[in-house]
Write a structure and sequence with these properties.
Blueprint (H helix, E strand, L loop, with lengths): L7 H10 L7 H13 L1 H18 L1 E2 L6 E2 L5 H4 L4 E8 L2 H10 L4 E5 L17 H9 L5 E5 L4 H14 L5 E4 L15 H9 L2 E2 L1
Parallel strand pairs: 3-4, 3-5, 5-6
Antiparallel strand pairs: 1-2, 6-7
Helix pairs in contact: 1-2, 5-8
Length: 201
């Protein structure tokens, strides 16, 4: 059995980095080495930023976004259309839409998608709070911006059934969203086309 060439602190850093999306053990080792080589300009500022984020960042009690304030900056903004609600699977999808600057309404983050295999049921997602937001009044359209995956579309159909009795317009993203595609990986032009071409569900 090969012994580690580094101490336990470096091993722990590599193991934690390897848990990040897109980083396997080899990429984590390279990232750890890059951080350690640039301790003053990269590692220490990163550690400080992560500590500050861990202490300050919270989940918005209204929409589910991540911010240092609750409600978040998007929910507090007086410049957004409060009558249109865009439902997304995850905060990454919200950030992708904001990056593309295609939507000026309010958001609702579900926190995932329905998945029988993974045991993710409606009760484990932010479905009830979405229904309550719509039932409270003032929402004229709900845009279901689900990823074009089997789970995403299953979740969208479930939401249509849940929202239908509330007599609100329900639409979904259209052209430009490839089947199996995830919003966080799409370019701004594709997101813009999908948003502008949304159609009734």
């Amino acid at each position: 059995m090969a012994t580690s060439p580094a101490g336990p602190e470096i091993d722990r850093l590599i193991q934690l980095l390897a848990k990040l999306p897109g980083l396997g053990p080899r990429s984590a080792r390279r990232a750890a080495l890059a951080l350690l080589k640039k301790r003053e300009t990269l590692l220490e500022p990163l550690a400080s930023a992560m500590a500050e984020a861990a202490a300050a960042i919270t989940q918005c009690s209204v929409c589910g976004n991540l911010d240092s304030t609750d409600p978040c900056v998007l929910c507090r903004s007086g410049e957004r259309n409060t009558g249109i609600l865009c439902v997304v699977e995850d905060v990454a999808d919200l950030w992708a839409l904001e990056r593309a600057s295609v939507f000026r309404g309010r958001y609702h983050v579900l926190g995932g998608v329905l998945s029988a295999l993974d045991g993710i049921t409606p009760e484990r997602l932010n479905f009830a709070s979405l229904v309550e937001r719509v039932r409270a009044g003032g929402v004229t359209e709900v845009i279901l911006a689900m990823n074009a995956t089997v789970e995403g579309q299953t979740t969208a159909h479930y939401l249509v059934d849940a929202l239908e009795p509330l007599s609100v317009k329900i639409s979904r993203l259209a052209h430009g969203m490839p089947v199996g595609g995830e919003m966080d990986y799409l370019d701004d032009g594709t997101l813009t086309a999908a948003f502008k071409s949304r159609r009734p569900f």
